[in-house]
Design goal:
By secondary structure, this protein is of the alpha+beta class. It has one domain. The chain has four helices and four strands. The model has no long low-confidence stretch (mean pLDDT 82).
Length: 87
């Protein structure tokens, strides 16, 4: 049986499953109580077992993140009109 919870990554989703892979049916999801007791938390991205970022870590990441226009220049400026779209 699966819990159908959302996780911050595939890795986190895999880590919340415990028990042997075989025989079939022996693997299960951790309960919310088990997850909370072992340091899991629910973030805006789903359940994770990673500690929250400190304010210093958040500031460092913001300072090193390139602007959106540097990643994809088309996001910063409008492109030419699409002739197939009505005006």
């Amino acid at each position: 049986m699966e819990c159908h919870r959302s996780f911050s990554s595939d890795y986190a989703g895999d880590r919340h499953r415990v028990g042997p892979h075989h025989p079939r049916g022996m693997r299960r999801c951790l309960t919310i109580g088990e997850m909370l007791a072992t340091g899991w938390r629910e973030s805006q991205y789903g359940w994770t077992d990673k500690p929250p970022l400190t304010d210093e870590e958040k500031a460092r990441l913001r300072a090193t993140r390139p602007p959106v226009e540097a990643i994809n220049p088309s996001l910063g400026t409008p492109g030419p009109p699409d002739p197939k779209q009505p005006l």
